[in-house]
């Protein structure tokens, strides 16, 4: 029984420490927004991936970097309306 409580408390600690891990009240929109932002951040952080994207899109690296930064603002569109409690 003690192991079960320990695993649960570790999960709660991870969820409070890292936003992207979610929690019980995480909506689908929040989850997808985190996933998209993580992906875009990875593209910006890996120089070779940015080179590949700029080559595929036939754009300069600066333009691709700018476009990705713009997409990070609202990658999944505006947030949905939440019902009032």
TrEMBL record:
Keywords: mRNA processing, mRNA splicing, Nucleus, Spliceosome
Main location: nucleus
Subcellular location field: Nucleus
Keyword Nucleus applies: yes
Domain of life: Eukaryota
Transmembrane stretches, start-end: none
Pfam name, any one: SF3b10
Family: Belongs to the SF3B5 family.
Name used for this protein in its record: Splicing factor 3B subunit 5
Gene: LOC101861466
């Amino acid at each position: 029984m003690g192991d079960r409580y320990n695993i649960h408390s570790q999960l709660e600690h991870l969820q409070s420490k890292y936003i992207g891990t979610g929690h019980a009240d995480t909506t689908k929109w929040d989850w997808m927004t985190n996933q998209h932002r993580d992906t875009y951040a990875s593209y910006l952080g890996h120089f070779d991936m940015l080179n590949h994207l700029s080559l595929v899109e036939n754009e300069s690296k600066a333009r691709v970097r700018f476009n990705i930064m713009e997409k990070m603002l609202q990658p999944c569109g505006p947030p949905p309306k939440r019902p009032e409690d």
